[in-house]
User: Which sequence fits this backbone?
């Protein structure tokens, strides 16, 4: 059933394929080692001078407003509690929440309250 | 300096202003009216605004945003072949404008209506219908309006294919109307689409008088029991079962119902929220833009400014009113059979126009008795009406398509 | 004007259509009743054992951190007030807010401050 | 009333239920199984759910959502011309259904797999591989599974093109599998895609026994040094360099690797967050929907219900297991060479199935020694495996395509 | 083992590395330069990054991501027929790569530039121009740069069609440049698009010297009265009126202006926020990705690496500088006429490049007088410049198209 | 090299183009002046009666809950501090944060914990 020549060709493809995959990833790895070596050299050169993008990493801590850590802890805890509370309130009601969301959009109709109010007013039925 | 003078003369001659026909002016006014209704009274703005503004744009002469006719005369045997058609149109009428591409590649191939149905499925909660399956029958009864309007249209001299496209307006379902009209009578697509979306906005005006005429005050005051809760498992099984049942019975309705149910399965399964959200938002918004622009681009003077269009608008009212009546009358039958445990008004919600008609029912119930909450009960017929209209469209397609 | 045969065909289609619509939705309703009956049977079987997905509904309340309700109420009220205040501040100014949003993106150009700073620096005009 | 009776008879005759074949029923059950696995056990739900539900839909007879065959017999010289093909199919089989358009315009043209790769690139952090480039070799070793499965398939009587498409399942990379199968053997696309995504979910079942058989307890307890930090500059340079290196060496892999790296450059550059987010979310979600629906629509009874499909599913396990073995064995070699500083288990992550196989390695490491953190080290081979599979697909394409 | 050896030799022969031409290498370096400018200096990164990376990718030989030529020689009568063209190209050059599909189906059909204009409309606030309509004239004056650059290009030996495409760079409007070049001279699309977006980033370098040379210190210190508030009603009416007026006068500008105004109506109507958001975000992001990739894919060595490209880049500077001069000079006229109540610098904002040139004006005003706020006054000419450029493109199309 | 006739045609196009651009924008400006004049007339007419959309602009201030401004300031500051703190905490760690986000989605696999738990349970290896 199986043609021998097909299997031999398959073997050839296998040898070629495995070789190429290894060759390509080896070359890629070597290039990456080279890039990493370049990077370390560049960083070494730059270190005496201020680093090229220090703004992002260094500026942040200075922006931190000074407020007493205890107060911050209290407020943070309270906000987290509030958020957790809020999340807990929402979670048990996914059904209801989804409903209202979906009906509002269904039929591609938004803000139908206003439309209806208008219609009811001019209709006076 | 004659070269320049010549160029100026030529420029003036090809100026749109000097090629403006009376038909163009009227169509621009029609487009402006739709924009006004959408902006001022928020009548289905998501569709009437794009439809209106693109109706204005395509009626500015020579604007090259829509170069191809909507219902062209094609060589023998080419009609069914969309790819041969667009190549032929390109040869005959020049390169496509953006609106030609939208119309021929997205609307005419039904890609857009089906993706809208997919998004609607992801937005719809069929829970109320699953909780009380008998309400599905009310969604069926409302489809009587489709056929009454169709017969009236035939009586007025429309062909059967046109009449079917007009009748489906009574299904109060925009994408189904566009789907069916595109297949059966594309030359009246602008009129039926505008009628469908306009009357969907006017449901709070059209339905109450019909409901009041058919029900007594006592009937309107009937309170209904609370619906049973529906489990997640039932909600997941529903779209699969509905797709298989309807697909096996009415194959021509399978594309519409299938996409609706795929969207609903994405929603209810709970495991593909990314895709469900995409169906409801990203994809839905983009598709809605193309739907509005594509439908609006069909509103050309030659095919829209006919006596037929006025007749279609009039027939739309007939369709909506008779659909409401059909639903309410079956509601009364079910009220009798159930020994007064069903409020007949919820039948009116069977026209779909989700969720407008259910809200109308709720409001009328509250007026008679502020403690009467029918909204969820009306939602059953309401979503059943979407399925019913798709099935009706499938039957019409299988007989006439 | 109207062909009688067309109208008769329309009548036929109507009878067929109404029948099919009712038949299909009736069958669907029956299937749904059956599914509901199955569901109730399954639930009855499952009730003695713990429910299949109790984690979602029960775990939440236990997560709620215990903080004095009065404190929570105060903080919550404050946050709501803050949020309301913030919303109120934003609402009257949709014009301005939209402006800044849009200009920033217009021309597909983001973060143009940095570009300009760069340009001004190297330009030294 | 004979007209009506005739219509009814005709309607029943064209009813899907009466045209349902045994093959359809089995395929619907297969689709339902995929849905069940996706919903109940969350097995790759983002793909198996859409695939399953559209397999159900296309097997409802006469449903007109997919009218064209998947692997049609075409006139001489038309095979390579996609535009001539769709025009011919339209002529032969009627207007396209939505799923035909998705399959022929989005899947067969490779638009969808390439856009998925683009999105994956925007989601992937190649940092662990950049930090320790030698782990890339482990991603290469795992590709041995691709070729072992291919040879086994040839031995079982599959043609070379089919065998290559089956072998690539061992790459544990859905889009690459779809890309290659579409080009080489579109008639088995359904089977290979389902196998690829199913086994990706079953990686935690398939890999551990293989890993345990090939490693000792001491080897599994080896701890590795922390990875060095990778600078932003290196991350930006990586996708550019990788694209150029691989594109120059294996041009047939350039589309896949190119789109992956464009997506990754968008991510790492930090200056096009809008586009990076779009690639990961809006575009990705929409494309994933079309991928699932398109692949599912190829699951027709005639091409799927064959003994071959079962063989393909069996060969998929061979592919995954031998890929795991290949990675672990090279891992052992590298452990020896490095003097025991490399844990051989991380080789198993080279099959990609990101990040499942890396997590399997982490979990097995924690079981032997709760303080052993290998996740980041396993991520290197893991992402390298994606590149390795794309390269393997490129080689197969260049020889067989 | 000769079979294997043969395969290896064959593989090496079809390797991209050995087919790399000098042109490819230069184009890859050009692409890398664009990436560097985008990432390091954030020069229009949303477009220059995708353009740069896809220029790299298409210049890796044999990569099959772009197989078709950009400006092919077509049989008689096929040029205008896009559908016949792609079928012919498929026959001649094999199946399309992803970038061929993007270029021929999305860019060449003008779908992408028009959708970008749609999104820009949804992002633009025309309020400042509505509040002070006379500033629209400054947006007209800046278009003089378009024509000066066109005449210079003709003098340098470019054909009229090429010259028009080059001149429109002075409009500082990427999508308009792409729209016009695609229609008139697609073979220089890469060069004009890159020039347009590059110089838009360099507006803060190009404009100040020109403005300083043409204005005195006293003129730059002129303060202007605050703009009157604009009502919502005016903002809603504006896009409709602008579309009708311009569409009737210059039909060839109708597609561009029409889509811009539809987007703006969506924004200002306030009733379709879903669609307005989609136009600005989901759709815009996806379309921008395709625009960048599609334009970048036209940067092939054979059409880009010519002396013409350098001339085009040089002419771009001429265009921007003369457009700035045109605006400022009319600004001085208006200053005289108004008795010194208009600061002539705001004329420079008429080149559009929204909002960069308005910011340049603001910055120069602040430098002379920190209390001088011209930003909003400069926004009037700025947005008018977008309309002016579209009108100029329309005129060029109607005469040369 | 340059054809004189082409240049003359270019000049013609320039004259035509500049004229049309100015004409179109002048007409547009005139129309806008007219619209603005209409608007002022309409507003004058409407002013004695209540403005057409007063709900949006007037209702908001009344909704503002009355809480002591000092308390509000304190809470607001605290929340801003908290937010700033949170932002500062997130910024230095984009790498980690991105990682977890991306891996979770990669391979199109969500919520793999549950899958694994299932697999491990039934596998019992
Ligand atoms: Na309906
Ligand atoms: Na892999
Ligand atoms: Na401009």
Assistant:
């Amino acid at each position: 059933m199986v043609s021998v020549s097909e299997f031999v060709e398959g073997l050839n493809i296998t040898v070629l394929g495995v070789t190429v995959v290894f060759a390509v990833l080896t070359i890629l790895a070597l290039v990456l080692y080279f890039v990493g070596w370049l990077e370390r050299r560049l960083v070494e050169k730059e270190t005496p001078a201020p680093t090229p993008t220090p703004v992002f990493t260094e500026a942040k801590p200075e922006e931190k407003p000074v407020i007493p850590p205890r107060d911050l802890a209290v407020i943070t805890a309270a906000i987290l509690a509030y958020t957790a509370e809020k999340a807990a309130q929402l979670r048990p009601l996914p059904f209801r929440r989804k409903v209202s969301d979906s009906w509002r959009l269904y039929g591609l109709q938004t803000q139908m309250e206003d439309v209806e109010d208008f219609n009811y007013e001019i209709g006076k039925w | 300096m004659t070269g320049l003078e010549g160029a100026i003369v030529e420029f003036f001659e090809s100026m749109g202003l000097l090629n403006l026909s009376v038909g163009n002016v009227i169509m621009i006014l029609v487009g402006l009216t739709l924009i006004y209704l959408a902006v001022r009274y928020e009548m289905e703005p998501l569709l009437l605004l794009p439809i209106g503004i693109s109706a204005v744009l395509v009626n500015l002469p020579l604007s090259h945003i829509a170069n191809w006719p909507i219902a062209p005369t094609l060589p023998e045997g080419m009609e069914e072949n969309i790819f041969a058609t667009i190549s032929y149109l390109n040869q005959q009428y020049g390169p496509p404008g953006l609106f030609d591409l939208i119309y021929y590649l997205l609307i005419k191939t039904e890609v857009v209506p089906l993706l809208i149905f997919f998004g609607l499925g992801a937005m719809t909660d069929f829970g109320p219908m699953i909780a009380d399956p008998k309400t599905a029958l009310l969604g069926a009864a409302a489809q009587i309006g489709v056929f009454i309007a169709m017969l009236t249209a035939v009586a007025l001299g429309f062909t059967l294919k046109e009449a079917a496209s007009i009748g489906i307006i009574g299904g109060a379902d925009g994408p189904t109307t566009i789907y069916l009209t595109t297949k059966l009578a594309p030359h009246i697509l602008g009129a039926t689409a505008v009628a469908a979306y306009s009357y969907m906005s006017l449901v709070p005006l059209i339905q109450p008088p019909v409901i009041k005429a058919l029900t007594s005050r006592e009937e309107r005051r009937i309170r209904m029991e609370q619906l049973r809760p529906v489990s997640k498992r039932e909600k997941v099984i529903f779209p699969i079962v509905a797709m298989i049942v309807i697909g096996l019975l009415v194959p021509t309705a399978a594309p519409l119902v299938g996409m609706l149910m795929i969207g609903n399965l994405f929603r209810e399964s709970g495991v593909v929220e990314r895709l469900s959200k995409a169906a409801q938002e990203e994809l839905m918004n983009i598709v809605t833009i193309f739907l509005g622009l594509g439908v609006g681009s069909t509103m050309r003077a030659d095919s829209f400014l006919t006596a037929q269009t006025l007749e279609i608008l009039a027939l739309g009212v007939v369709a909506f009113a008779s659909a409401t009546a059909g639903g309410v009358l079956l509601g009364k039958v079910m009220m009798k059979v159930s020994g007064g445990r069903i409020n007949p008004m919820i039948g009116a919600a069977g026209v779909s126009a989700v969720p407008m008609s259910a809200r109308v029912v709720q409001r009328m119930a509250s007026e008679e008795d502020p403690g009467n909450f029918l909204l969820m009960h009306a939602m059953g017929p309401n979503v059943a009406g979407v399925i019913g209209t798709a099935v009706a469209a499938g039957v019409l397609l299988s007989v006439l398509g």
Remarks:
- Chain D is about 70% helix and 0% strand.
- Residues E 171-173, 351-352, 385-386, 388-389 surround sodium ion (ligand 3) (CB under 6 Å).
- The interface with chain A takes residues 129-130, 133-134, 136-137, 139-141, 143-144, 146-147, 150-151, 154-157, 159-160, 163-164, 231-234, 237-238, 241-242, 245-246, 249-250, 384, 387-388, 391-392, 395-396, 399-400 of chain D (CB under 8 Å).
